[in-house]
Design goal:
It is built from six helices and no strands. It has 180 residues and is mainly alpha-helical.
Length: 180
């Protein structure tokens, strides 16, 4: 895809997601297989719940980085994650509400523990740990969305996935560049 087309697609996604996708970089899957069952409704509900937890984790992790990071590039990444994952949060909430599915606004328990561990770090050690977390979480989020894309037939959820995946890939690339 050309840079101009990718840039235009990115702007369209940002506009549609209305805010701050902030990290749907899902630590929420943390290696556990997704349980997309035979019932498409259950699969959609499970996906939306996992995606909301992962997204919340990205927001909360990046909010910590906004105040603790020392490298301006790391702070800029955190700002971007908060903005874009917040927009994604709104899109997820709207999609869940449309389906009458309750999704939480909190990270999963494993992510809460990881965020707590990050809060104990300072300086460049914090920066390295945060960037590593963003790389790992975005890889997990991308895997979650790709798996859901193959397993879920719901048109609205697939549209959300199609709009979100390119943004998550850009997040992963940005974090990867800072990890070098």
């Amino acid at each position: 895809m050309s840079g101009a087309r990718r840039s235009g697609a990115y702007r369209a996604v940002r506009g549609r997601l209305s805010g701050a996708l902030r990290g749907l970089g899902l630590a929420l899957v943390f290696g556990s297989p997704l349980a997309f069952g035979a019932d498409a409704t259950d699969a959609g509900a499970t996906f939306l719940q996992k995606a909301a937890q992962a997204n919340a984790a990205e927001i909360k992790t990046s909010q910590v980085a906004q105040t603790r990071a020392v490298d301006p590039a790391v702070k800029a990444l955190a700002d971007r994650m908060v903005d874009e994952h917040t927009a994604n949060e709104h899109a997820l909430e709207a999609l869940a509400k449309k389906r009458n599915i309750a999704v939480g606004a909190d990270p999963d328990p494993d992510r809460v523990i990881r965020i707590g561990s990050l809060q104990k770090l300072e300086g460049s050690g914090f920066d390295r740990a945060y960037v590593k977390t963003m790389v790992e979480d975005h890889a997990a989020a991308i895997a979650l969305l790709e798996q859901a894309s193959d397993a879920i037939d719901d048109a609205d959820i697939r549209q959300f996935i199609d709009a979100t995946l390119p943004v998550l890939r850009e997040h992963a690339e940005a974090a990867q560049k800072l990890s070098r």
